[in-house]
Amino acid sequence: MATDVSQPQARAPRPSIDLIGWLRQNLFSNWWNSLISMALLFLVFQTLSGLFNWIVTSDGWPAVANNVRLLLVGRYPPDQTWRPELVVAMIALLLGLSGGLWRGIPLALAAGFALLILLLGLIALTLPPDQVAPLVPTTLFLFGSTGLVALGVAVAWRLGNLLRWPLVVAWIVLYPVAILILRGDATTAIETSLWGGLMLTLILAVSGIVLSFPLGILLALGRRSNLPVIKWFCIAYIELIRGVPLVTVLFMASLMLPLFLPSEVRIDAVVRAIVAVTLFSAAYMAENVRGGLQSLPRGQTEAARALGLNVVQTTLLITLPQALRAIIPVLVGQFIGLFKDTSLVVIIGLTDLLGMAQAINTQPQWLGIAGGVWRETFFVIAVVYWIFSFTMSRTARQIESRLNVSH
Amino acid sequence: MSGHAVGETIIICEHVNKWYGDFQALKDVSMQVKKGEVVVICGPSGSGKSTFIRTINRLEEHQEGRIVVDGIEMSNDIRNIDAIRREVGMVFQQFNLFPHLTVLQNVTLAPLWVRKKTRKESEVKAMELLERVGIIEQARKFPGQLSGGQQQRVAIARALAMEPRIMLFDEPTSALDPEMVKEVLDVMKTLARAGMTMLCVTHEMGFAREVADRVIFMDKGQIVEENTPEEFFNHPRHERTKLFLSQIL
């Protein structure tokens, strides 16, 4: 029919391919392609079946199961376990509230967190009966926290914007409050030398990220300053720190710093590690921020200045927000790096997640196991590191695509 | 034609010289603009016309000579410069809207932070200006979602939100697709007729003929010729001006 010819097609034609078609097109399009595909599939199968076989048959898992406490909080006094648990519960509630209020990314994070602790609780229940008994309180706590997330979501869903500012404030004060709770009051002060495991890793990473972020921004702005003294100080600092490995900075902070200070001043080992990680990370942060600032067209500053905004206003309202937005992927990459780099504090005697795994490997009760238990412990902590890093990277992707809408 | 109600002198430039390294970008530029006047500056590329207009709000620093804007003597004192910038609006070739802010936020930013107006006050004013330049429906969008012509009209509204006494236009239509030039020029014409003091670097000779009180022709950093549009287009005096006009008309 004549009219059909001029009729534009409603949609671009979509290739309809079933599974077999897809396989044929992508993996077996010709003989050598098929050969490579077969070889790779065989390799993947071998690796996965070997991994699965090892997971099922290994007798080293009790080393992990019996040391969950050490891996999570280190040698933190068992009768004070309620302190880290309280902090986790607070995080659960805040995550739930944020998820219910802002939906989107926070909701996904809250759901992921709830799922994770629920899974941990369920895993604990699958252990042999004699091992379950001591874990019952922890399991109940995990289920309770899952409930708190759900409760938070429900409450925030109802109350909506009323919670906005209280919630922002709550997130900001969470960090100092958590440290105070973990530290205990004057009479029952819990030495940071007892802190360890995942808890210590997270404290180091969060402190490093939270503190190095503003410091890095200041250094970046300083490096671009017109005042020579500030400029040269920032350049010297950045280039000095970037010229040495993190291990050196950690050694400096833990071994040499006490030499410079009067003997009665003793700085806590964890604080020294935090300072080292922060100072180290800030130098890299500064260069990333500077890159972001330099990527902006000159016209942005000119337009702001022509409108009468002063230098500070131009930086805070115009250039910095755009620069930070542009470097989100780099920033998150750096945060992930920092998170994993905290494992280096083992060298200065702190037992973070990695340190704990090493400590467990040398426990006498596993000496009978051929080959030791290091595979099992390291596998588990690798999974833990991966979960956190992957979450950070996915969150960043989400934020990026969210912000791209506005461009 | 021209003939705006003209008042006292609002911009004075005397013997302005500027160098980039060894290259002299402005040579002994002297001119004056009266309140309510519309002055068009034209000339071949590299003639220093953009540089000159940018010295008036100190986006470019001049090394010699005197510039007085609205009674404020330009000096190296940042407070002086900021005072001048508050009275002088500028529209750029590349629009230079802030991409991370909505159209409305772009327009309210300076009144909020520089003039310290309330949010309500500046938003009412902004909506009024956006209506005047014909893009009120786009107020909640981001600049990236607008066409070039629309962006430039937002840029004009943004500059006007500061209630400037002088507007500088630095090739406002050069980066636009041809069909969008008119919508921007129309806004500029309305502004000129409303009595705004305007200094425009532009190649739009139709605009110059229609609304300019004076046309200044620059070449190699110097003012070559300065005349009414009538005289300038019909009886150019200098050979260089004649050559230029024969090339662009």
Question: Explain this structure to me?
Answer:
The complex is a heterodimer of chains A (407) and B (249). With 407 residues, chain A is mainly α. In chain A, α10 packs across α16 (328-341), α10 runs antiparallel to α17 (353-361) and α11 (228-242) crosses α13 (269-294). Chain A starts with a helix and ends with a helix. Chain A contains 18 helices and no strands. Helices cover 38% and strands 25% of the residues of chain B. Chain B is built from 9 helices and 10 strands. Chain B has helices at 49-55, 78-87, 103-113, 119-132, 148-160, 178-193, 205-211, 229-234, 239-248; strands spanning 9-20, 23-34, 38-42, 64-69, 72-73, 88-91, 166-170, 197-201, 214-219, 222-227. Chain B has a 6-stranded mixed beta sheet, sandwiched between helices. A 4-stranded antiparallel beta sheet of chain B has the order 2-1-4-5, covered by helices on one side. In chain B, α3 (103-113) runs parallel beside α5. The radius of gyration of chain B is 18 Å and the shape is globular. The A-B interface holds A 297, 299-300, 302-310, 313, 317-318, 321-322, 325, 406-407 and B 57, 59, 78, 82, 85-86, 88-90, 92, 94, 96-100, 109-110, 113-114, 142, 144, 155, 158-159, 162.
N-to-C span of chain B: 19 Å
Strand content of chain B: 25-35%
Q: Per the principal axes of the C-alpha atoms, what is the gross shape of chain A?
A: globular
Radius of gyration of chain A: 26 Å
Classification by helices and strands of chain B: alpha/beta
List the quaternary state of the chains: heterodimer
SSE order of chain A = HHHHHHHHHHHHHHHHHH
Spatial order of the strands in the main sheet of chain B?
6-7-8-3-9-10
Any low-confidence stretches of chain A, pLDDT <50, length ≥5?
none
Got a strand count of chain A?
A: 0
Helix content of chain A: over 70%
Largest sheet of chain B: 6 strands, mixed
Q: In percent, how much strand structure appears in the residues of chain A?
A: under 5%
Q: Quick one: overall form of chain B?
A: globular
Spell the H/E element sequence of chain B.
Answer: EEEHEEHEHHHEHEHEEHH
Main β-sheet description of chain A? none
Pair of chains with the largest interface and how many residues each contributes:
A-B, 20 and 26 residues
Count, helices of chain B: 9
Please give the number of β-strands of chain B: 10
Q: Uncertain regions of chain B: pLDDT < 50 for 5+ in a row?
A: none
